[in-house]
Specification:
Blueprint: E1 2-5, E2 12-15, E3 18-21, E4 24-27, H1 32-38, E5 46-52, E6 58-64, E7 72-78, E8 80-87, E9 98-104, E10 110-113, E11 117-123, E12 128-134, E13 143-145, H2 166-169
Antiparallel strand pairs: 1-2, 2-10, 3-4, 5-12, 6-11, 6-13, 7-10, 7-12, 8-9, 8-11
Length: 186
């Protein structure tokens, strides 16, 4: 596995070693030892999977407030997405900076970000299967979202009219949310 740095410290892409031949391919998607060597100390406790039918669907920007904040390791097993992590840690040198990467079944890349980040993705194809590991369990009480088009963040999704869930349509601006991440406390 290879770690590919982004502009935000602690946020990076993982390029797995893919071994292929005429039969297909094999790749390791998780190894505690290999991930430690890449700098990932998170102890993943839950795997999640979503399926999205239509290209142009946006899920996010989602996060869980403290004390249930989550590090995430995300990947796509069918289709392609534009995946985005945004730093929501007040006081961080990269506060409100965001990183976007294309994840697809073809490129097999994974994206890791620590607690304190919001997360969202836009489907670039129909029929997307999206998988992610988290280091903290789901908490309905701590589950939050902010508007995908918050001007304070300014993410370039490549569309102004994505397909959104009712929850995401009602998501507040960050300034109106109760996001409680403080840099250095997570």
């Amino acid at each position: 596995m290879k770690r590919i740095a982004t502009r935000i410290p602690g946020v990076f892409v993982i390029k797995p070693q893919v071994i292929g031949d005429h039969r297909g391919y094999f790749m390791e998607t998780y190894s505690k030892d290999a991930f430690r060597q890449l700098g990932i100390e998170a102890e993943f406790v839950q795997d999640n999977q979503s399926f999205t039918q239509k290209k142009g669907t946006l899920r996010g920007i989602h996060f869980q407030n403290e004390p249930m904040a989550q590090a995430k390791l995300v990947r796509v097993t069918r289709g392609a997405v534009l995946d985005v992590a945004v730093d929501l840690r007040k006081g961080s040198p990269t506060y409100l900076h965001w990183e976007a990467v294309e994840l697809s079944a073809d490129n097999k890349r994974m994206f890791f970000f620590p607690p304190g980040f919001g997360h969202g993705f836009l489907t670039l194809t129909d029929d997307v299967e999206f998988l992610y590991k988290v280091d903290n369990l789901y908490s309905k009480e701590c589950d939050r979202g902010i508007a995908f088009n918050d001007p304070a963040i300014g993410i370039n999704w490549g569309t102004k009219t994505p397909i959104l869930s009712e929850k995401d349509q009602k998501a507040p601006w960050l300034a109106d949310s109760d996001c409680n991440f403080i840099y250095g406390e997570i």
